[in-house]
Amino acid sequence: MRKKLVLIVAGLLVAGAATLVASTASAATTITVVEHATTDKVADVGKKGDSPGDLLTFHNKVYDGTDTTVVGNDQGYCTRISPNQGSWECIYTTFLKDGSITVETPFYDAKDSVGAITGGTGAYASASGTIDLHCFVDGDIGKCDFVFNIA
């Protein structure tokens, strides 16, 4: 009897795990927005000029993936890590109609980066995954593509 009970419980656990994996896999979502970096400000901290510890703050509008319609805004900050390597470390939140997504990510002056989705609110309350960050200049406006790969 005990052996039969163990087999039944083990079977239920395997079935439950399979259901969890299936529901998690089907819940994966990709959201792409384009930030227009129009409010970025750098506070010179410590050694004069571009140096470790400088602080970049921002609160910008974000547009849909086609860069035509405002769908929300973001706010956050980055700390300069290495001017020689062109690196910053950033924490920010993107606010969308259905909730917010918070990330921690490196940002590089001259190359793309991948960071971590650390949480969210509303529809994104249990968000995890990655953000692909690609920044560029379009005319006279700095822009960044945020591709949220939500697991």
Topology:
Blueprint lengths: L1 H25 L2 E8 L4 E3 L11 E4 L2 E3 L6 E13 L4 E10 L2 E10 L4 E8 L8 E10 L2 E10 L1
Antiparallel strand pairs: 1-4, 1-10, 2-3, 3-5, 4-5, 5-6, 6-7, 7-8, 8-9, 9-10
Characterize the structure shown.
This protein has one domain (29-150): Allene oxide cyclase-like (AOC barrel-like). Strands 1-4-5-6-7-8-9-10 form an eight-stranded antiparallel β-barrel. It starts with a helix and ends with a strand. By secondary structure, it is an alpha+beta fold. The protein has one helix at 2-26; strands spanning 29-36, 41-43, 55-58, 61-63, 70-82, 87-96, 99-108, 113-120, 129-138, 141-150. The chain has one helix and ten strands, in the order H-E-E-E-E-E-E-E-E-E-E.
Mean model confidence by pLDDT: 88
Secondary structure: number of strands:
10
Which residues form runs of ≥5 with pLDDT under 50?
A: 4-26
Distance between the termini: 41 Å
Instruction: Write the H/E string, N to C.
Output: HEEEEEEEEEE
Q: Biggest sheet: strands, sense, closure?
A: 8 strands, antiparallel, barrel
Helix content: 10-25%
Strand content: over 45%
Name of the level-1 CATH class:
Mainly Beta
Structural class: alpha+beta
